[in-house]
Amino acid sequence: MARKRVWPASLLCLVILLGAVPAYAQLTDNLGGLTDENFPGYLGPLNTGLSGTMNAGIFRTGYVPTTGISLRGELIVMAVGFSNEDRTYMPIDPDGFTSLDPTLVPTAIGSPDGVSVPGQGGLTQMYPGGFDLDGFELAVPQITIGSIFGTRAVIRYIAFDVGDSDIGSLKYFGIGGQHSISQYMPGLPVDVAAGFLWQSFKIGDILDAKATHINVTASKGYRFFQPYVGLGIDTIQTDAKYDDEDNPDNSFDVSLDRETDPRLTAGVTATVSYFSAFFEVSSAAATSVALGLSFGN
Question: Is 245 inside a domain boundary?
Fold first, then answer.
């Protein structure tokens, strides 16, 4: 039997938190082992999912006043769907093991059934199942504050204790701004603004994702509705690590490849007095939807 590494339960918990999957107890019995070289393949779809959600629902108007004081509190819900290609990956044979036939195995969002791959010399290598996710969701509060010389600030923040001593706390923080382009181009039939947001998503010392979103948004305001479109660039870098003091062989520290993806967004905001609601669809690292409510001026 080839050497196997048990996937730590704490890292499984973070996948459950991201995917809102209630079946953790059932799935842990199906887990096999992972070696260092296969963590990127197994965890790769998390980059796609995190980028698709974290970079959604940020900028929803091209109108930024040049003067005055404005403050809006918002609750944003973002969701992505995964493709069939995200559900499997081709593993790399660990040292001391050579597979007889190339075999696709589940990623973290794939089938919950582990796969046993036969190798030369009668050896086998077990690969863990996933969480059978079609997608996952994130929700975060957002505040916008403006406006100075046609610039507003955008802040996202949420933090809480996960409730597991091995994981610790979840922290999600984003900060950036949006600047009016229309103020330099009088007579434009639409409002246009450029925006930037930097974000950090951490779960204890286990997962650390850094994302940036650069965007240009155009919108047209009517009495109660404001359609908008956005064109942007998303980047994300995700690091995952786990230190097992009792069994150092189970420890790992892996950095997933940085992803950079264009984002095309279309949405609409409905406003009545100081209340607004919006819905948007984006094509980026993954197809995402976002919706939310806001209050303020």
Answer: yes
CATH number, domain with residue 252: 2.40.128
| pLDDT mean over 107-119 | 88
Q: State how many domains the chain has.
A: 1
Question: Could you tell me the CA-to-CA distances from 254 to 44, 135, 193, 236, 281 in Å, in that order?
Answer: 11, 23, 37, 15, 32
Output the CA torsion sign for 97, 99, 104, 105: negative
Q: Mention every residue, 6+ apart, whose C-beta is less than 8 A from residue 187.
A: none
Token code pair at residue 188: 């434009």
Give SS3 for 122.
helix
CA–CA gap between residue 84 and residue 284 (Å, rounded): 16
Distance between CA atoms of 288 and 81, rounded to whole angstroms?
7
Q: Is residue 4 part of a domain?
A: no
Task: Determine the pLDDT at residue 11.
Answer: 42
Tell me, yes or no, if the pTM score tops 0.85: no
The pair of structure tokens assigned to 280 is: 């948007």
Query: Would you state the pLDDT for residue 18?
Result: 46
Q: What are phi and psi of 154, to 5 degrees?
A: -130, 130
Phi, psi of 150 (to 5 degrees): 75, 25
The predicted model gives 215-234 an average pLDDT of 96
Among 84, 71, 79, smallest CA distance to 19 is for: 79
Residue spans of beta strands (DSSP E) within 149-250: 151-161, 169-180, 191-203, 207-219, 225-242
Q: Could you say which DSSP state residue 112 is in?
A: S
Q: Report whether pLDDT(284) > 60.
A: yes
Q: pLDDT by residue (tens digit) across 262-274?
A: 999 999 999 999 9
Tell me which H or E stretch contains 265.
Answer: strand 259-272
Is position 217 within any domain?
Answer: yes
